Every structure is written in C-alpha cells, then in structure tokens.
Amino acid sequence: MPTQIKAVGTTEARKPLEVMDIARRDLQPDDVQFQVLYCGICHSDLHQVHNDFGGSSFPMVPGHEIVGRVTAVGSDVKSFKVGDLAAVGCIVDSCGHCPACRHDLEQFCEGEGGTTLSFNTPDKYMGGMTYGGFSQTYVCKEQYTLHVPESLDLAAAAPLLCAGITVYSPLKHWGAGAGKTVGIVGIGGLGHVAIKIAKAMGAHVVVFTTSASKVEDAKRLGAHEAVLSSDPEQMKAFASKIDIIIDTVSATHEVNAYLNLLAIDGSLVLVGLPAEPLEVGAFNVVKGRRSFSGSNIGGIAETQEMLDFCAEHDIVADIELIKADQINEAFERLEKNDVRYRFVIDMSTLA
Ligand code: NAP
Ligand code: ZN
User: Fold this and answer.
1) What is the per-residue pLDDT for 137?
2) DSSP string across 99-122
3) Is residue 1 scored above 90 in pLDDT?
4) Which ligand is closest to the CA of 208, given by its number?
5) What's the gap in Å between 70 CA and the centre of ligand 2?
6) What is the CATH number of domain 163-294?
7) Which of 39, 213, 249, 320 best tests ligand 1's pocket when mutated (most atoms within 8 Å of CB)?
8) Which of 97, 149, 248, 317 has the smallest set of CB atoms within 10 Å of its CB?
C-alpha cells in the first residue's frame, strides 16, 4: 500500500502553496525511504510554480534539495541502513544505459523518458508526476540517493544538493583552480555557494552583483574582489581579465557586458535560467575566441564527489531556516531578491 503523507504544494500556477495529502510508493527492493529533515528552496522551484518555462504540471509539490534520515530500506539495498543520513537532489532516475548515463551524466539521459527529476516529471511507479521534497518523506532508488557526510550542518548542507552541484560541475569542467580567475555573476543561492567552492578550488574569485549591499558581504563569503555591476568604471577594470564566468542570474540580463570581461579563450557558463532568450553580440565572442556555454546540475557520482569536497573544505550554504507555514512568504521574498542566501525549510514543522 502506498503511504499517505503531508506535503506542501499547489494546484495551480502562481497560487499560494498549501498543505496537501500525497502518496509515496511502496518500498521496492532497490529503494531507500527517508524522513525529510530539511529541504532548500531553489529559484527553480519558483520558476516551476510560476510555470515560467511552460512545462509545469499541477498539482505540484516542489523541492529538490532534500536531506533526511533513513527510515526503511529495500531488500537489495547495500549502502544505506535505517538511521543513516540520506539526500536527494534533482535526479531520481534515468535509463542507466544510454551514452550519457554510461558517462555519469544522468542529467542528460537520452533514454526513453530521459531523466526523472525529483519533482514535476512523469512518475514511473505511481503515475502522474513526481512530488518533491516539500514533504514528510521521500522514496528514491539507492543508486540515485546520496550520502551526506556527518560533519556537515544538515540544514545548511541541503542547498548543496542543487545549488552546490550546479556550480561545482561547471567550475570543475572548465578548470577552475590555482592561476585561474573566476567570475561569479549574481549572488543568490547558487552564486554564494559558487564563491565558496571556487575559492576552495584555489581560483581567484571576482563577484559581480547588482546589489550594493552584497559587495561587502561577498568578501565575507570568500570573494577576493567584488564589483557592483551597475558601475561601468568598476566593470571596465576587469575587461578581458576573467577566465571562467559562472552566470547564475535568474532573469533576463545583458550578457554582453560579461562576455567582454573574458580573457582570450575564456568561457561564460550560463547556469541561470531566464525564461526569455538572451542576445549575444557576435563581436563579443569572436574577439578573444570566447565561448558562451551552459551547464545543467551534475551527475550522481559528481554530486557525491561535491558533497565530499564540501565536507573536506567545510562548505555549506548561508541559510535562513523557516517553518513550513512560511513557505509562501519565502517564495515572495525570493522573487524580490530578498534572501541571504538560501531559504531552507525545517520539515519537522510540517505536522
Ligand atoms: P536566486 O537565489 O534568486 O539568485 C539569483 C541572483 O541573480 C540574485 O540573487 C541576484 O543577484 C541576481 N538577479 C536576480 N534578478 C536579477 C536581474 N533582474 N538582473 C540581474 N541580476 C539579477 O536564485 P538561485 O536559486 O541561485 O537560482 C539562479 C538561477 O539558476 C535560477 O534561474 C534557477 O532556476 C537556475 N538554476 C539552474 C540550474 C541548472 O542546473 N542550470 C540549477 C539550479 C538553479 P545579485 O543581487 O547579486 O545581483
Ligand atoms: Zn535547484
């Protein structure tokens, strides 16, 4: 019998979220079931609830930065036992045998149905769509369930499951490290974790923010230099100086201003998901053989590697811990760019 649990979701785009009853599947032999302790609120949750990309399906329970404690394991599960910490990010299933999956890039699964996400993609077991981590429990295949190092603060570690891997993966892929200058554009949930990870990788980190109040705070977060992007003089000082830019901005913005900051062979990597197309001027990329590219979360093995890296370097998010009945207020504040720097829900408050 599927288990009935409480969750927080919505039945329509842009409607306030409310407590609802959902069902979790029966434990399969390869499943891990856990009580959700904490779940982060990512701007992608907001995009999906707003149906910004057009593909949202309702009812919807968001949440894909999920940390919890194991309450049951299926008969084939080897690496988790009851009482262990467990975490789930964006990916909960994929075909497992296409070229992308074989190269640990489950986020780009090309098999039938593609990647199953933790919420708002077709649910192979229950029908309908998957329901995310704004809920009391979660059930996930062992293979897609992550181990959380015990040394990390659990609430502050939750955002690593999406924000962390989304910036770790491109920083690693594009070679951030000693001798490289990394620019981080947008200091929100993703951006503030990117500062910490890029610094731990050994790069020189320069932050670009539209918020005057974040300029000083960026240094506290570990940035070596911070630029108010609305000031052309400050921007000019970095022309052709940055090797890798991680652009986390959630709304339409002028990317050409950032392409001009790239050194020869530099790359601007888009991870933010503005709903409208961005315009790129030809001369901003042909000059300096620059690349305009993108990146999407990261595979399961890389997500585990990122969690272990963060434990080793003592990296977690700066969070505002909220109760379940504050989710709507948090969504409103996230929309207004008023969060330092990630909301995390204490799921024990969902009674
Ligand atoms: P967030 O906390 O809201 O941060 C976004 C930041 O962008 C803001 O803090 C702000 O930084 C800047 N910003 C917002 N509006 C802006 C505007 N109109 N013009 C210029 N800058 C603006 O969001 P998040 O959770 O970090 O997510 C960021 C984006 O990444 C979202 O679009 C999300 O959907 C996407 N995302 C993508 C992936 C992926 O795999 N590719 C994964 C997760 C999230 P400043 O105040 O510093 O300017
Ligand atoms: Zn996310």
Assistant:
1) 98
2) HHHHTT-GGG--STT-PEESSSSB
3) no
4) 1
5) 23
6) 3.40.50.720
7) 249
8) 97
